[in-house]
Specification:
The complex is a heterodimer of chains A (572) and B (152). With 572 residues, chain A is an alpha/beta fold. Helix content of chain A is 41%, strand content 21%. Chain A has 3 domains: 100 residues, 2-Layer Sandwich (Beta-Lactamase), CATH 3.30.450; 150 residues, Reverse transcriptase/Diguanylate cyclase domain (Alpha-Beta Plaits), CATH 3.30.70.270; 233 residues, Alpha-Beta Barrel (TIM Barrel). Chain B has 152 residues and is an alpha+beta fold. The chains are: A alpha/beta (572), B alpha+beta (152). The structure holds flavin mononucleotide. Chain A: Pfam families: EAL (PF00563), GGDEF (PF00990).
Chain lengths: 572, 152
């Protein structure tokens, strides 16, 4: 070992800082943790000591000090000229090695008697070389704005390229924020945004950047060696934002959806990256919110597809491309068809038959559902008026349509124009509608009932399915979701649930119908469970309006098995 | 939003301990929480009580609205618990725990209060209590001085 080595004191500097009686060990620990960058080189320019601050000044923050001991200084810090190349060695000489550029740190070197060098970093690169970024905070939250984010992105990109790091943009959107604003007012909404901003700042890591880029939209830039670090941040954000907030004495629970996109090599414009993150965010929202997704190229295609559907959808009403089919429902008591559910079909000249699942979500997102729903309502009433007096028609109403200001008028005019008596019209709404503001929903339901129409709760059993809904809202009918009727999901537990809902619904004066009945066994069981009516392929598939007349003439084949209700336990 | 000193708020919530640790570690952790709470709450004029049993925390916080909300917000960012559920928030005119910057209640005494002495050995589940039950039980115990400012 050279004398130089022993001068610095050679306990392994990477060993843990256990308390020690040896003062030289403590000095060494002190040097290692010092805020100023220090390095010691042997006569042949190998590193014999280095501390974290030194490595950080040379953009090697994650390198272990112990890992570079004994290595050639030039290999570890190629941007820094060797002291021997810039300074003449005359005894105890001191000098400054001019940095290769103002992007690298400056070092003062001092030679020692053993022929080695001690280097002290005098000016870390970034602070010295670059002016502080202009920061005009968002007025409400004090976070950076989109403009600030752009400036930071440029700077982060330079650093990331040098350090071989990745930059990821996180686009964060608050779920249910609009409802908070609508029901509790803007002051509470603003208070919530401020607390969200605080939580975001505390949740991200020190070097990540948080900005507010829209009403309830935030963007975060994360830079790291590995992409999972960004996933970690996204997961923590979702967790922290879903915890309750207290604002002005109100308890508020919201959620966050996040989209992630990584910076492409040499990408210098953050807008494109943010746009990709936004597309990924949209996927998170469609996937049920409170989740994160990475941007994928297919998402562009998917978005494009939905955009095309939207364009075609706008024309479809005018071009008369929608049709309605009707699926029969049967009441056990009357032992015959008691009504039909109207179901929309879209027959596109080029696309062919488009699945309702594919276009209804686009219709909801774009608000086109109001126009389409109004058409279905009018058309269904017009058809139903030609049926026998005791047969009802059920029409699905989306939550957006239900909330629309013109909905009451649309129902009134459908009835008036068709001449259908109101009690023959059943409007089916789902829980999604009930999740909105209670009093508004209740008022609307009461207005509709005042017109004389009836209201059913559709798809009961999936989602929240609070039994409380049955108590709180004046439904005429509950439709139990088919997953409780059809195998493989309908197990013993499902049967008990059907029974409980049937009993409770009946007790509240509602007509309880089970959907998705396909076999005689299912029918018998449903009946035993106490349901009053069924719908499903066993009774009939959806049929065209023109076929309804003949359908009603033929008695239902299964009715034979209903003439004598099955005894307890029998399945035939 | 600014409020006057007369606007008092009371919050009751429960939450679950995040990590599985043994009894001693948890007592130590709770001591740290209490120490911090007593220091902070004393400065912000917040009072209340905390109970811990079988991995579940129950807490009542009361004080000026802004102070309670700030304290609550700090507690939300704590990684030592999760699945925080607020059971009750109400405006009050008088404190129920005026002497306690954060009193701690051993679960045994709560069992005794809720179920009589016989029940005191069996574990019970704080998360099944209503906000009113948690509040009333803790309050009753403070009146009987069954409260401390230490966990162990
Ligand atoms: C169940 C639970 C209850 C807590 N109660 C309080 C409290 O009443 N007051 C408080 O200041 N901190 C409380 N804390 C601690 C806070 O979460 C947080 O660690 C602390 O307020 C940070 O204080 P500081 O910013 O002064 O370090 C609680 C933590 C837990 C897990």
């Amino acid at each position: 070992m050279s004398q130089h080595h022993s001068a610095v004191g050679m306990t392994d500097p990477s060993s843990s800082a256990a308390p020690s009686d040896d003062p030289s060990v403590e000095i060494l620990h002190g040097l290692r943790d010092a805020g100023v960058g220090l390095v010691a080189l042997s006569a042949n320019n190998e590193i014999s000591f280095v501390n974290n601050a030194f490595l950080a000044a040379f953009d090697l923050p994650e390198t272990e000090c112990a890992a570079v001991l004994g290595k050639s200084f030039q290999d570890v810090c190629p941007t820094c000229p060797l002291p021997s190349s810039t300074l003449r060695r005359t005894g105890d000489e001191t000098g400054t090695a001019d940095a290769a550029s103002d992007r690298t740190a400056k070092i003062i070197w001092s030679s020692n008697s053993a022929g080695g060098w001690i280097g002290v970093v005098t000016a870390p690169p970034s602070q010295a070389a670059r002016p502080a970024l202009l920061f005009e905070p968002d007025e409400l939250t004090g976070l950076g704005t989109r403009k600030h984010l752009k400036a930071c992105f440029e700077r982060m990109s330079e650093d990331a390229d040098r350090r071989d790091q990745r930059i990821v943009a996180l686009f964060v959107d608050l779920d249910h924020f609009k409802q908070v604003n609508d029901t509790l007012g803007h002051a509470v909404g603003d208070g919530l945004l401020c607390k969200v901003a605080e939580r975001l700042k505390k949740t991200v890591r020190r070097d990540d950047l948080v900005a507010r880029v829209g009403g309830d939209e935030f963007a975060i830039l994360v830079s790291d060696r590995a992409l999972p670090a960004a996933e970690d941040v996204a997961g923590r954000i979702i967790k922290m934002i879903s915890r309750p907030f207290l604002i002005d004495g109100h308890q508020i629970t919201i959620g966050a959806s996040v989209g992630l996109a990584a910076r492409l090599p040499n990408e210098n414009d953050p807008d494109k990256m943010l746009q990709r993150a936004d597309i990924a965010l949209y996927e998170s929202k469609r996937g049920g919110r409170n989740q994160f997704n990475w941007f994928k190229d297919e998402m562009f295609a998917e978005l494009e597809k939905r955009r095309e559907i939207e364009i075609d959808l706008r024309k479809a009403v005018l071009l008369d491309q929608f049709k309605i089919v009707f699926q029969p429902q049967m009441s056990f008591e009357q032992q015959k068809v008691s009504g039909f559910e109207a179901l929309i079909r879209w027959d596109h000249p080029v696309r062919g038959e488009v699945a309702p699942l594919d276009f209804l979500s686009v219709a909801e997102e774009t608000g086109l559902i109001v126009e389409i729903g109004t058409w279905v309502l009018a058309e269904a009433c017009k058809t139903a008026v030609t049926w026998p007096e005791d047969i009802a028609v059920a029409v699905n109403v989306s939550s957006i349509q239900f909330e629309d200001d013109g909905f009451l008028t649309a129902v009134g005019s459908a009835l008036e124009k068709s001449g259908l008596s109101p009690h023959r019209l059943e409007l089916e709404i789902t829980e999604t509608t009930l999740l909105k503001n209670d009093s508004v929903v209740l008022e609307r339901m009461n207005d509709l009932r005042a017109l004389g129409v009836r209201i059913s709760l559709d798809d009961f059993g999936i989602g929240y399915s609070s039994l409380n809904y049955l108590r709180k809202y004046p439904f005429d009918k509950v439709k139990i979701d088919q997953s409780f009727v059809r195998e493989p999901f309908a197990d013993e537990n499902a049967h008990h649930i059907v029974e409980a809902v049937a009993q409770l619904g009946t007790a509240f004066g509602m007509n309880v119908l089970a959907e998705g009945v396909e076999t005689v066994e299912q029918l018998a069981r449903i009946r035993q469970n106490g349901c009053a009516a069924i719908q499903g392929y066993l009774i009939g598939r959806p049929i065209k309006p023109a076929e309804i007349g003949s359908f009603l003439e033929v008695p239902l084949p299964e009715l034979a098995s209903l003439q004598s209700p099955p005894k307890e336990g029998s399945t035939s | 939003m600014t409020h006057t000193e007369e606007d008092l708020l009371r919050v009751v919530y429960f939450s679950y301990q995040t990590y599985d640790t043994d009894r001693e570690m948890m007592a130590w952790e709770i001591d740290k929480i209490l120490e911090k709470s007593q220091f902070n709450n004393g400065r912000f004029n917040v009072t209340g009580a905390l109970i811990f049993n079988s991995g579940v925390f129950g807490q009542v916080l009361e004080g000026p609205i802004d102070a309670v909300e700030e304290t609550f917000e700090r507690i939300q960012m704590d990684e030592r618990h999760d699945h925080i559920t607020v059971l009750d928030t109400s405006r009050i005119t008088e404190r129920s725990f005026p002497r306690w910057s954060m009193g701690f209640i051993g679960s045994d005494s709560v069992c005794a209060e809720l179920f009589g002495e016989i029940g005191s050995k069996t574990a019970f589940d704080i998360s099944r209590l209503s906000g009113q039950q948690i509040f009333e039980t803790l309050h009753a115990l403070t009146l009987k001085n069954e409260i401390s400012d230490r966990a162990a």
